[in-house]
Design goal:
With 401 residues, the chain is of the alpha+beta class. It has helices at 79-85, 137-148, 182-186, 193-210, 214-220, 224-241, 246-258, 294-310, 315-332, 340-357, 368-383, 389-400, and strands at 5-10, 14-19, 25-29, 36-37, 48-51, 93-98, 104-111, 114-121, 160-164, 169-173, 180-181, 262-264, 273-276, 279-282, 289-291.
């Protein structure tokens, strides 16, 4: 059993409680009485904290693991009450849980004639391995959307409606009700090169509009969340499982860290684009930072590459979509970003391997033989990357045949 909790002052005078010593457990504490409760009670007034050890993964002392659950734990069954407290809920409110991925709770709210989305960051992500991230990343996301709305085509970025900083959540405008994610379309074999080109153009515009912008770097320069949600679970974890490739992963992270030139979305993935009649809205900006734009390009290409292995019959169409995306992206980035292709290829092999052997494996690459085929292709891509992006998809099509 844990020892008696003691009071600790934590972040902006927020009072929390912890036990002394290193405990590997979840605990809940009543803020008013500080009596512990380990029976999973949930509610508005019950903050919950996790601590793993007094030594963090970097070997530094840590009194309390700082990934706390906010005072209000957003759920579909309590969202209407929460909105009512803000004077935003009408008599007819419908709440639908959306796919928030592994890192968020995301709810669609339909009230009277309004449609909007509530989003709250999770502290412990929904994966098998332990994976934690600072919940205040949600406000990096809202800041990124505010910054990008004037720079990207109208309708490309949701509008922020309000922020609740106490509870690490915000509300934003919803996409059209008939829109689908690009991932859903791709998983039905609909690899529209026009949509891919639009998404590539959006990325190029994001890069060019923020290129070496001192204000963007000041606001988004911290890469802590990118490290927590991308570098550590994708690159460090995968390198640890492939020690013979550790040198390549370390070099990639070192070189990428030195390329701090523009805004990076950090999750430029098909699941984060809402598509309707050729129009595209980008969502999920929580990993946005000022850094290496090649990461975004490779992240998107990696999803198309994975689907080429998953459904070989789609590989030709996916290859055309990949090239449409890539050409539109390159047409939009500044001339001095000529290094982006080689940098993208360096990321691509490592990201491909990470979706097999990292903390967030692709949910549709499950067959052992398919996993082995993707793993071998990724390892070869890391060791001997080709000169051009088109070469990767040509080779993948041959391997998938």
């Amino acid at each position: 059993m844990p020892r008696s909790p003691r009071k600790v002052e934590y972040l902006a005078s927020k009072t929390v409680w912890r036990t002394s010593g290193a405990w590997d457990l979840w605990g809940e504490f009543d803020r008013t009485s500080a009596t512990s409760n380990f029976q999973g009670r949930r509610g508005i007034c019950w903050p919950r904290f996790v601590w793993k050890s007094t030594i963090d993964r970097h070997g530094c002392p840590r009194e309390l693991c700082c990934y706390d659950v906010p005072l209000f734990d957003l759920q579909a069954d309590n969202a209407a009450e929460y909105l009512g407290g803000r004077g935003m809920a009408g008599e007819a409110v419908r709440i639908t849980e959306l796919g928030g991925g592994v890192s968020n709770t995301v709810l669609l709210v339909e009230a009277d004639d309004r449609r909007f989305v509530l989003k709250q960051a999770l502290g412990k992500l929904r994966v098998q391995d332990d994976w934690f991230s600072d919940r205040e990343r949600v406000f990096r996301e809202s800041a990124a959307m505010r910054w990008l709305r004037p720079h990207l085509p109208a309708g490309s970025v949701p509008e922020i409606l309000f922020e609740d900083r106490e509870n690490c959540l915000f509300a934003m405008s919803a996409g059209p009700p008939e829109a689908e994610t690009w991932k859903a379309l791709l998983m039905r074999g609909q690899a529209d090169a026009g949509v891919a080109g639009t998404i590539g153009g959006m990325l190029g515009k994001m890069v060019s509009s923020s290129w070496r912008d001192p204000e963007a770097e000041r606001v988004f320069g911290d890469q802590t969340v990118f490290d927590q949600l991308r570098l550590d679970p994708y690159y460090r974890t995968t390198a640890a499982r492939h020690p013979d490739l550790k040198q390549q992963f370390d070099r990639l992270m070192r070189e990428s860290s030195s390329r701090r030139v523009s805004l990076v979305h950090g999750d430029w993935s098909p699941k984060n684009f809402l598509v309707l009649a050729g129009t595209v809205m980008a969502i999920d900006f929580e990993v946005t930072h000022f850094g290496d734009p090649a990461f975004d390009a490779a992240f998107l290409l990696n999803h198309l590459l994975l689907k080429s292995f998953y459904r070989p019959a789609w590989s030709a169409a996916l290859g055309r979509a990949a090239l449409a995306f890539w050409e539109a992206c390159c047409a939009g980035v500044p001339e001095e970003c000529r290094w982006i292709e080689s940098a993208t290829l360096s990321h691509l092999g490592c990201l491909l391997l990470a979706r097999v052997d990292g903390k967030s494996p692709a949910e549709y690459i499950t067959d052992p033989a398919l996993r082995a085929r993707v793993r071998e292709f990724a390892r070869q891509l890391i060791v001997a990357p080709p000169e051009h992006v088109a070469d990767v998809f040509d080779e993948a099509r041959r391997c998938a045949a």
